[in-house]
Amino acid sequence: MPFANDYKSDIHPIWCPGCGHFMVLRALTQAMAWLELDKDRTAVISGIGCSSRLPAYVDTYGFHGLHGRALPLATGVKLANPELTVIVASGDGDAYSIGGNHFLHACRRNLDMTLIVMDNRVYGMTKGQPSPTTEPEWKAKLAPHGTHLRPFQPMALALSAGASFVARGFSGNPAELSKVIAAGIEHQGFSFIEVLSPCVTFRPEELAWRHEAAPLDAEPTDDLCTAMHNVLKKPALTTGIFYQAQRPVWEPDTAAHRPLDALAEEAFAL
Questions:
Q1: What is the sign, positive or negative, of the torsion defined by CA atoms of 251, 114, 194, 53?
Q2: What's the sign of the alpha-carbon dihedral 53, 95, 157, 213?
Q3: Which of 18, 48, 123, 168 sits between 20 and 30 A of 96, alpha carbons compared?
Q4: DSSP 3-state of 193
């Protein structure tokens, strides 16, 4: 059986010391080791942001794409090679702001891949702006009066949009997070995993999450109403698998595919 370190690249992460993303990387590589994923048949895709540096730190195929465009890139990768295990690494800005439209439709399509969103409720790489999940009263140099905007509820959005696996983890508990990520990768369909990952630089108060995060006191359910109730009524730092259901996985009609040379000849025929 491989070890977690077998899935780490030789590139040293440049996240801030103490960043929660270090433990997300640890949890992901541990899950990969448990599942004995073939490195040559695994791809990690990302957009832009602190979280999106992750593909460089794992020893698999990877692609560091444009801001908010990780999911359409990953969709193209999966459709082009359905045998690949496709994992998307994103953040609350990358996934829910500029990438919000792609997030909704990726849930709706239920393509077989896993989205891991590292949520620290702030734009860390661009110096501390509020993100879609930032509390309305949070004040910073770039938002001295707060936003006065209701934050996104990503898990509720994922449920309503059609994701068939919805879970939350905490970077401060990498053992539990590894199990959640492994379950998401194994799930047949679109798996969405929200990871509470504190930003020690711009939101040091989030270090208190280690005293507040607690596991869900219920088994995963395939009942949408029950899952939605748990997402909306349980404390915001509750972790675990909230929803897991078997739904048809979207697959393109491969019979309609035509060779590229034939398409090019037809498209550029004079």
A1: negative
A2: positive
A3: 18
A4: strand
DSSP, res 20: T
For the stretch 28-76, pLDDT in tens is 999 999 999 999 999 999 999 999 999 999 999 999 988 879 999 999 9
Taking the C-alpha atoms of 63, 68, 69 and 75 in order, what is their torsion angle to the nearest 10 degrees?
A: 90
Type of residue numbered 29: T
Taking the chain, what is the end-to-end CA distance rounded to the nearest angstrom?
A: 57
Q: Say which DSSP state 97 is in.
A: T
pTM: 0.91
Instruction: Give dist(CA 178, CA 167) in Å, integer.
Output: 12
Helix (H) or strand (E) holding 243: strand 238-244
- Ordered by where they begin, the domains of the chain are 4-267 (3.40.50.970)
Element (H, E) at 46: strand 42-46
Mean pLDDT of 150-174: 96
Q: What's the rounded Cα separation, in Å, for the pair 47 and 36?
A: 26
CB 240 within 8 A of CB 167: yes
CB 142: neighbour CB atoms within 10 A? 13
